[in-house]
Amino acid sequence: MACQSGDFFQVATSHSFDVLISEVGPRDGLQSVGSTMSTVDKCAWIDALAASGLQEIEVGSFVSPKLLPQMADTAAVVRHALCHPQLTVMVLVPNLRGAQAAIDAGVHKITLPISASSAHSMANVRKSPQEMVDEVRNIIALRDEIAPRVHVEAGISTAFGCTMQGVVPDDEVISLAAACAHAGADEVGLSDTTGMANPAQVQRLFKRLIAELGDKAGAAHMHNTRGLGLANCLAAYEVGTRTFDASLGGLGGCPYAPGASGNVVTEDLVFMFEAMGVRTGVDLERLIAARTQLAHGLPGEPLYGMTPLAGLPKGFEPAAYAPAS
Description:
The chain has helices at 25-29, 39-51, 74-81, 96-105, 118-125, 129-146, 170-182, 199-213, 229-238, 266-276, 284-297, 306-310; strands at residues 20-23, 56-61, 88-92, 109-115, 151-157, 187-191, 217-221, 243-246. With 325 residues, it is an alpha/beta fold. Helix 2 (39-51) packs parallel to helix 3 and helix 8 packs parallel to helix 9. The longest helix is centred in the middle third of the chain and has 18 residues, at 129-146.
C-alpha cells in the first residue's frame, strides 16, 4: 500500500520537542483487542499518526501468528511505515528469530520485553529473565554483524508489580536493567505492565535507573488501569525521563497480565505536556483527528481519553508557539 497523499497526510511542521512521545497503539493496542484490523486500515492509521508529527511509532511485533494473529502482517506494515522519512519505525520482538525478521524488514528500532517477574516472563515469552538477558546479548551480536544502525531497546516489564507474583523488589528491577545495558542494549526503560505503579514508586525507580544507566535510561511505559497513568508520567518526567510510550485512544494491555487494561492515552499525554509548556512536536488537532481512522479500522471498539471529549481550551497555545512566561 502506497503512502496516501493530500493535505491531511502532510506531516505537522514542528519537529522541535522536549519529550519524545512514542506511539505504541499499532502494536500494544491492537494485540490487546479481540478483532483484527486490516492491513489497509493499519497503514492508513499510521499515516494519520505520522501526519500529526509523531516521531516514533511501534507499528507491530514479529511474533508467532498463532499466538497473536493481529500481528501477522507486521512485515507489510513496516514496509509501508518506512515511507515516512521523519518517522522512527519500531517493532517488538521476543527473541532472536523475531529480531532477524525485524532487521530483514528494515526497521529502525527493536524493543524487547524483559520481565522482572519470573512468573510473568515464563507466561509471556517462555523464558526466565536471565535467559532473556542472554537473548538481548544474542540480538546485539546479530545487530552488530548485519545492521549496526538498528537501535535496540530493552523494556523491563512488570517493573512496578506483577498480577501473578505480586511485589517485584526494586533491587531486582534495577539489577535486571543494568544486566540488559551490560549485554549491549542501547537503552533500557521501565514498564508498568500491570497498571500497579504509583507516582512515588515511579520517581524512586526512575531516579535509580538514571543513576545506574545514565544516558542509557529509556522510556516510561505506563498504563492507566487505576487512573494514575498521567500522574506516573509526570512523576517520571520530574526526575529526568524524556521518552514516554502512549497509545491513541488508550488502547492496550497485556494478554498475560489479567486486568491490566489501558495504556496512557496519547492525546491526554500530549495535552498535559503542551499545556505545561513542554514541547512534544505533535499537532494535537491532527492527533485527535487520527482517532477517526482508528475507529474506522476497529468499529465498535471503545476509545478513551478526556481531551478528545472536552476539546482544547479556548485560547490554548501549543508549547512551541506559547509566549515565554
